[in-house]
Amino acid sequence: MRRLLPITLLVVTLLIAACSDDPDGSSGLDDGTSADTDSTDTDSTDTDSTDTAGQEDGAFSDDESSVMTATFAVRASAGQVTIMGATPDIDAELTNGTDTYSGVVDDLGNLIFRLVEPGDGYVVTTFSAPDETSDTFTVPTLDDHPDPDFYSAQTLEEGLNYIEMRDGTLLSAMVRFPEASGDGPFPTVVEYSGYDPSSPVEEEPTIGIYRALGYATVGVNMRGSGCSGGAFDYFEPLQSIDGYDMIEAIAHQDWVEHSHVGMVGISYSGISQLYVAATQPPSLAAITPLGVIEDSYRSTIYPGGIYNNGFAKSWGDSRQDANDAYGQKWVEQRAEFGDDVCDANQLLRSQNRDLAAEALAHAFYDPAIGNQLSPRTFVDQITVPTLLGGAWQDEQVGSRFATMLDNFTGTDVFKAYLFNGAHADSLGPENLQRASEFMDVYVAEKTPAMGVFIRAAASILYEQAFGVTGVVVPDDRFTSLDEARTTIESEPMITLFLDMGSTDFAPGAPQSRSQLMFDSWPPSAAEMMSWSLVSGGGLDADSAPELIVEGGVVESFVVDVDRSQELTKTADGEDDANEFDNLVWAALDPGNALVYDTAPLSRDYLLIGSGSVRLWVSADENDADLQVTISEIRPDGQEMYVQSGWIRASHRQLVGPDDDPDMIYTHAEADTVTLPPAEPTEVVVEILPAGHIFREDSQIRLTVDSPGGNRNLWAFDVLPYDGTNIYVSLGGDTNSVLELPLMPAPAGISEELPVCGAQRSQPCRPAIAWTNTLVG
User: Fold this and answer.
1) Best CA proximity match to 562, nearest among 720, 402, 766
2) Bridge-partner residues for 172, per DSSP?
3) pTM summary value
4) C-beta separation of 439 from 288 below 8 A
5) Between 2.60.120.260, 3.30.70.980, 3.40.50.1780, 3.40.50.300, what CATH number should domain 531-745 receive?
6) Following DSSP, what letter does each residue of 682-718 receive, concatenated?
7) How confident is the model over 46-73, as pLDDT tens digits?
8) Contact present, 215 and 178 (Cβ < 8 Å)
9) Which class for 616: exposed (0-12), middle (13-18), buried (19 or more C-beta within 10 A)?
10) Checking DSSP bridges between strand 386-391 and strand 414-419, what pairing results, if any?
């Protein structure tokens, strides 16, 4: 936190004027970048915010919209109020007579009131000697958009720029023109995240690809990250309307072709596209979100109500460190070598939210908070053409994104590309081709063409990125723009890439052996098939449940807490984030699981969608953490991983008939119920969406055990009940059942088994005969 207090005193004392047009306020670096934003008329945003901010985010202006008094300044944003320059470590209050918010000013004189109800008549009071009260001001709504001239007045040039938001916050934006580009205008795409998209030092991979394809690219850092102003939070509403402002400001540049832009990116910058597009910026032409979530709680942070202390925790910790003041090397360098805007923009980092603390504080789902962090609740508001890609075994964000595919009802053009594999595989050659086609049609408005040189270069880069040879980028499909548009819009909504990694020409590469297309999600041809779990380790699809076991049978397994931290790593022991073709899947210890197999299948079946297991559970303790896993027992003696699901038994309450059925569980604190002692209780365990061909003569295996051991990055903060027993009742009134959405595999699918050691993110292990522990 060095240097921040002197900066605070400087900027508050001097009250640097808003929208400075002094070119010497730029970075002063010799890297070909600039930090220049044209002066804008402050009156243009008077209806949108009470803005006392200066050109540098750490400085509030002294113009006619100021509501500051004496020693502190106030900025009102949509749903948020910031005070700066107050006396450190004193109490402060925000009120309009109806709604009141309180907090403590930090040691740098900063405080942000979040989740503030919009309205008039607000004042801020700081309680010191003497107390100080601001003038009255308005907190605007998220829909109070600036006039178009607010955007057209801003000028962005090649290099590093700062885009002004409606509340005066400045976001760092790195503009790059395509190589050998001429004077433009250029088709333009934007990447927006809290990583390093605006770094002038290193180009993000996705926008680098599009620049090679002839696009101008703009990488923008979210508020509170990189060289952007403000404080950081996880997908707070302000980041969405910042995205609106960013899109409009960029699209108004004279070097942007067609006066509209597209959005690109994977993971963080894929999810952000959903948030921005839902605000419906007029100049947004299309989006291509890859590797996304549908619900932060259910997808990644608390799968099944169990805290993911693997990826979710490590991601939050890494963002916390990187978004601290000067937390990234390139940010520190820009500040040290003359970028005064970047330097001042670090000032509010003292108000960054503590992501780890927030995650732990919300162990239960609260719709007031959780819904705004769940794209499933708002993707129906997206109206632009949308192409989405995602992997069933995504080691970072999981596959629950697929449960919201039928929610994209606001756009006439929605395409989803689904496949087995890893997080980074959304940038694989087949997905890249389809995404670049999409951008060419809806953003560049040209005939899609990748070109011989780019295709050859891509093959080399894929070899470097994924460690495999023989990668082939598919040929161009179209000879005209009209043909491309007509074909894309007439193709089915869902494309399923099968057996990624098992090709003969590039084993281990993110390329498919087969493709299937479906008009809807979930595919109408898939039917839910059921099997009863039977004593002795069988899955019976034929017997009537009441006849399976008269009176019921109980089987048990021993809880293994250590397994919660076991990960699937590469066979060579290297922790390579993109090598998912040779993972080690550790065998289970005897007694630590229950295993059930179907009879050998009479034909090939396609698993497509979400499944579930209805278990009748009891336990030595009053709660239990459960993991269920679907795998394929193959005729060659190998067991191949397919998919898993999790639940903490106390979170078993299902949603009501009026709720979104894809939520499965309420995860509400009020709905948590412990397990009654020695009494079987029905617990439904969701199996995450998947797509997989079970081949003829294979068997479907269900494993019930303790969480862990199946994922590359997910670990679980499980209950401390190591060595205790969990019991599953079978038959009679306690008939436990597996349900999977299956359909006969269509013709044209490869009859060969996927290649163990090559199939992406689906490791194999020897299939062993298993004996369940029978109780009594």
Assistant:
1) 720
2) 162
3) 0.91
4) yes
5) 2.60.120.260
6) EEEEEEEEEEEEEPTT-EEEEEEE-S-SS-SS-----
7) 333 333 333 344 444 333 333 345 589 9
8) yes
9) buried
10) parallel
